[in-house]
Write the structure tokens for this entry.
Amino acid sequence: MNWILLAAHWFGSAVCHQFPEHSYHIAGVPLPLCARCTGLYLGALLTLIFHAWRHPRASGTPRAWVLFALALFFFAWAGDGVNSFLSTIPILPHLYPPQNILRLITGTLMGITIGSLVFIVFNSMLWRAPNPDSIFATRREFFALLGLGALLILIVHSEFAPLLYPLNLAILIAILVLHTTLVTAFIANLTRPAMNWRQALPAFALGALIALTYLSAIALLRALLLPGL
């Protein structure tokens, strides 16, 4: 099972600084992403799964109040990140002491925002006839996703020892899925849109290969230039 930890930390090094003091620890082992990135990637994966389950080919933007909420999530994430950065420079003021729970919460909210936007872009570019319906058909769906996000936050924050391998595996999957989805959407935009999943498989396969390649290259470059970090 150690391969899960090694793979998660390897690919995690391509997308996150991995500072131990900014990370949650499960059974004494830091997660492969900092608290903010953990929330972002797991929140994005949760959101993609939720939308795929509820409305697989939906590509319509949410209502104005949902877009406003998603914008607030972005500013909360960015504001907490700036405050955390300012706290590392003694001569600069910051609003409040940074905490991992705040990093996790704002990261998860940002993950919901990113996951929703990526899902819209993905369906719009991949399918020849995407469903124009909104990704959130009802207000209940939006709040249900927020509830699942809150549950995700509680799970990670618990630092429950048996979650070591499941959380590392989930983070590894989240990194690969999010980047593969983005690359696949870009490939589909350059080629002929698909009518069904069978036609979409080549774009997925190429997207996964490209994502694995550049993530591995970044991780390798970091290992060579910044050994020990």
User: Anything to note?
Assistant: The chain has a mean pLDDT of 94. The longest helix spans residues 197-225. Residues 2-11+27-225 form one domain.
